[in-house]
Amino acid sequence: MTNHITTKWLGGMAFESNNPSGHNLRIDAGPDDGGEGSGLRPKALMLSGLAGCSGLDVASLIKKMKLEVDDFTIETIANLTDEHPKYYDSVVIEYHFYGSNLKEDKLQRAVDLSVEKYCGVMEMFRRFAQLEIKTIFHKK
């Protein structure tokens, strides 16, 4: 299976990229780099893709395991190298679960399955970055 994305220049430093979902997204550089800051930054977008991919896995497993979770966030903190081409050489991915009836062992299993088995974007990141996974439970 292949993905085909078309990214069209809008002038200046801005682009619009389509997606199989039917939604488009705007990409732009910040003012420091000659853009207007009117869109998403490409490298940060990679981190959203990583968190989104794994988050979909975990959300699916929360539903399948019938777990009670009031809130769920993923914090993705990445270190960018100093030399060009700059890339992420290490990434910390924190899974934060909030609730009064958290089944920690099952939620940890959901995270582990995503990280180790299901998330293709995680596997791509593993090819160029050191990953650190943290699971944090916030009981109400």
UniProtKB/TrEMBL annotation:
UniProt xrefs under InterPro entries: KH_dom-like_a/b, OsmC/Ohr_fam, OsmC/Ohrsf
Coiled coil: none
Matching SUPFAM superfamilies: OsmC-like (SSF82784)
Lineage top rank: taxon: Bacteria
Protein name, per record: OsmC family peroxiredoxin
Record organism: Flagellimonas alvinocaridis
